[in-house]
Amino acid sequence: MAKTKYLIIGGGHAGAMAALGLRKAGADGRVLLVSAEAEYPYLRYMLSKEYLRGQRPRDRLNIRPVKLFLDQGVEMLLGTRAVGLNAEAQSVLLDTGEEVGYEKLLLATGASLRRLPVPGTELPGVYHLRTLADADALREEIALNRKAVIIGGGFIGAEVAASFVQQGMNVTIVDVAETLWAHLFGEKMGRFFHEGLLKRGVDILTPVHVESIEGENRVRRVVTQEGHALDGDLVVVGIGVNPETELAEAAGLSVDNGILVDEYLESSRPGIFAAGDNARFYSPLFDARLRIEHWDVAGQQGSIAAANMLGQCKPFDEVPYFFSELFDMWVEFLGHAPHWDRLTLRTLGEDRFAAFYSQQGRVNGVLLVNNSKELKSCAKFIRSKTVIGDLTTLEDPDVDLGEVLTAKPDA
Amino acid sequence: MAREERVAAASEIPEGVLKGVSLGETYILLANVGGKLYAVSDICTHAECNISDGGYLEGTEVECPCHGSRFDVTTGEVTQSPAEEALRVYCVAIRDGDVLVTLE
Q1: Out of A137, A144, A298, A402, which could bridge A14 as a Cys pair, Cβ 3.0 to 4.6 Å?
Q2: Which of A50, A68, A372 comes nearest B82 by C-beta?
């Protein structure tokens, strides 16, 4: 049996940053990263954005230059899937039949696509977007100027729709929710994005439920339970992902909507860590278990997990952050605000604002549109857990956010 | 008072190369564009990532590895959002093969 000191399963952002992070944190000994994907770790978030629009060359898509991984002595086994985990024996079985023993293991297996349980999804012209190969296939379709139906108007669906329209295509989003993104940001802000997409040329049909995808040799239309038949010769399904937890479950690790890990990203089995989309971690900042399916958190957790694989006891306590891009709107969200009793809007210009999600005066989340300038103040604010007596202060664009945020809580 | 500090050997930063250095709490990005050396802050003004940690140089532009903000290293100016504020520019000189940066 082959042996490695550090074994990382998964070649996404978390896995890549963990591999480099191990060396940065002083690891000696063998570092092996096993990835089911055939590519070196790449900037997955660009697949629905610049890369899909042909604005990002392939040779600028890697997370880090391949040479850096090699120089750091990170071994990569690409196009290879881990199919079994024996936590007792501390070994992982690969689909090549090879078994690899480890001292410390990181599961950074990400998430897998949810499939639409309707007839017709196997038709040519029906796509998901998760991998570089998916994006490459979609780029070829864009060149043919298809008429597209996007099933699901979440981040991926909306971003793909925007990129398609920017490439001159005709696009309709269908979604089960009446207002896109209302489940993320509430009805008011959801409406802002929903209308923003309409205004910029995306057609939206909601609330509808897809009954079937039809066509003979290729997709021709999408039929809804409500009786619509939408013509289209390209369909992209973006209805979310599920955490990839199979290995962990089979090995008896605690799993509940993600691999359960503590603030050090260590699982119920000492020596086995998880980071990224598949990890449901304890957040000391919010005193809650969170699982975040976003780029930044995955990378940060990879780095932190690496330090902890070396016994450095670093908690993951970043303010969760994610971003999206829709046409000319750069969208950012900071924090964690599943509930709020007040939404405070700070408008700085047309389509430029900060929206504060607060509960009992404590701001737990901030949505920023075209307002990266205030990102750092907002992050510090959420981290400080400051309670603001008079939230209306935040509405005044002339008030310096930094000063409000550093002011003492109201006595 | 301004003071000059040695931060690297000039030979460490050949043409087209970026290098991050630190002086206490000050993080500086050195870039060699066409044989001339420039020094700007290494902390992206967008989300405070270290640009040298995976960023790359293309012409006079540097791209932050975190969210793709771009800056002109010769002026510090933003050339691509999400960053909105320019990077601070430092005076840099090469003397006897040493790279010297002027700090306030």
Answers
A1: A298
A2: A372
